[in-house]
Backbone:
């Protein structure tokens, strides 16, 4: 029997415009709303990410973060 999908937490999130566009597109392409799409991604994080690529991309993101905050 599948688990019931309950949204139990709400939290304010700040996202870049590019990140939000990708989230909306991902949600729309899969028939989900943004909250359901985020829940899917985080519940299945290990299986939807490539660890080596994630580490590399995180390093790049962090190196650009200070400039992005300005």
Residues:
């Amino acid at each position: 029997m599948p688990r019931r999908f309950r949204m139990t937490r709400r939290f304010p999130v700040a996202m870049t415009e590019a990140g939000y566009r990708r989230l909306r597109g991902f949600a729309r392409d899969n028939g989900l709303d943004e909250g359901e799409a985020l829940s899917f991604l985080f519940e299945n994080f290990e299986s939807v990410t490539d660890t080596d690529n994630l580490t590399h991309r995180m390093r790049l993101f962090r190196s650009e973060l200070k400039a992005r905050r300005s």
In short: The helical segments are 17-29, 34-43, 45-48, 51-69.
